[in-house]
Structure to design on (113 residues):
């Protein structure tokens, strides 16, 4: 009976370890998905065309066609999509446009020379 309890304990420990591993994996997927959604929101705010967004998505899916061994395919697709979205020219052009606009003055009575 003692041997059976030890075996049950070991099985429960292994199951707990597997659940913890799955929890960590899901947490990573959730973080990556949140990054992707934030980038999509930024691009939407910049009025990216549906055609450009479609090209990014198709490029992502094409590059993830053959999954790499040892890497979860879902995470690979999300990671690649996040990289493709982050590399979008619109996101990098926006800060430059803001930098070119005249600086806003804190006091409207001050005249900039």
């Amino acid at each position: 009976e003692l041997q059976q309890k030890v075996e049950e304990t070991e099985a429960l420990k292994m199951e707990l370890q597997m659940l913890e591993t799955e929890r960590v994996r899901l947490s990573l997927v959730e973080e990556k998905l949140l990054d992707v959604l934030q980038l999509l929101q930024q691009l939407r705010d910049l009025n990216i065309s549906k055609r450009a967004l479609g090209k990014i998505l198709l490029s992502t899916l094409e590059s993830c066609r053959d999954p790499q061994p040892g890497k979860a395919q879902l995470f690979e697709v999300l990671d690649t999509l996040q990289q493709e979205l982050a590399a979008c020219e619109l996101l990098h052009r926006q800060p430059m446009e803001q930098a070119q606009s005249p600086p806003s003055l804190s006091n409207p009575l001050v005249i900039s020379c």
Notes: Residues 105 and 111 are 8 Å apart (CA to CA). The chain is about 75% helix and 0% strand.
